[in-house]
Amino acid sequence: MLFSRFPRVQLATLPTPLQHLPRYGALANHPKVYIKRDDFMALGMGGNKLRHLEFWLGAALQQGADVIIACGRPESNQCRLTAAAAAKLGLKCILLHNTEKPDFLQGNILLSHLMGAQSIYLGEIDEDARQEQALALMESLKSEGHNPYLIGSDVPLGCLGYVNAALELHQQALAQNIDLRHVVIVGAMGGTAAGFLYGTALLGHPFHVHVISVEYPKEKIWSILERNFNNISSLLELTPNAKLAEVATVHAEYLGPGYAQPTPEAIQTVRDLAQTEGILLENVYTSKTVWGMRDLVARGIISPQEATCVIHTGGGPALFAQAELYQPR
Predict the structure, then answer these.
(1) What is the pLDDT of residues 120-147, one digit of tens each?
(2) In the prediction, which pLDDT does 249 show?
(3) pLDDT by residue (tens digit) across 284-322?
(4) Using H for helix, E for strand and C for coil, what is the string for the chain?
């Protein structure tokens, strides 16, 4: 088996559903639109990071870890799902947030608190400074006799979750007699997209993957994807059947003002999918991804005659922290 030599703990509810979107497809002028529901998982309200955490926490348990550390802003989906997984496994969870302590907990940070995670607020510092604080915390915990594990310290290992997702989607499409030609997936720090791209390359490029950047300009997200893609290949000790440039196109034109900055089109996309399919998105990752898919159809880059799947990576709890965008008009 491809992943048999890597310790893994079951956290995600797999396979996640592959669903047709007939009403949203009519709105988008594409009758063959599908959605892969990685938001549709039981643990911690679901999301893509559970696939990563299966491998990270598998390694943590193998190493005898007793404290799990994760970093992110209070609205971080990774922090929420790390808190959920740690609670399930009976491990202490500490979250480091590079922001001031909020006056009122809502969305992801509220859920992390409910699941027993300890949050430490570091003030408005950059990611490099936050990483230094995380490493210092690990040394402090070790001096107290603990064995901490830092989530994200082995990026290629976490990427295996989405290598598997690509294989899973391919099998589902075959089983449902869907001639899947395009997949649209979010690109942020690159682990989810890179894993999916590598899995697609292993399959020999059965569909083309469109990566919608929500954090970085095109050149930077491409360099991140390329590095992660190559590191996954080294980890698995496998040469894929297609090159990265053959399976992927990066689109940075939907980023808008920047990371976590909503665009009018993304805001409307949340309403559109909710009102046509009863599926909820949020404004950092998924709404820009779904809007990107729709615009690629409108521009003729994706043909409405070619089956297309958008990956829903979750993040629904963040919507409650974005409530001001959706008050009745």
Answers:
(1) 999 999 999 999 999 999 999 999 999 9
(2) 98
(3) 999 999 999 999 999 999 999 999 999 999 999 999 989
(4) CCCCCCCCCCCCCCCCCEEECHHHHHHCCCCCEEEEECCCCCHHHCECHHHHHHHHHHHHHHCCCCEEEEECCCCCHHHHHHHHHHHHHCCEEEEEECCCCCCCCCHHHHHHHHCCCEEEECCCCCHHHHHHHHHHHHHHHHHCCCCEEECCCCHHHHHHHHHHHHHHHHHHHHHCCCCEEEEEEEECCCHHHHHHHHHHHHCCCCCEEEEEECCCCHHHHHHHHHHHHHHHHHHHCCCCCCCHHHHEEEECCCCCCCCCCCCHHHHHHHHHHHHHHCCCCCCCCHHHHHHHHHHHHHCCCCCCCCEEEEEECECHHHHHHHHHHHCCC
List of domains in the chain: 18-47+156-326 (3.40.50.1100), 49-150 (3.40.50.1100)
> Would you call 287 a catalytic residue per the annotation?
no
- Of the candidates 4, 76, 119, 287, the residue annotated as catalytic is 76
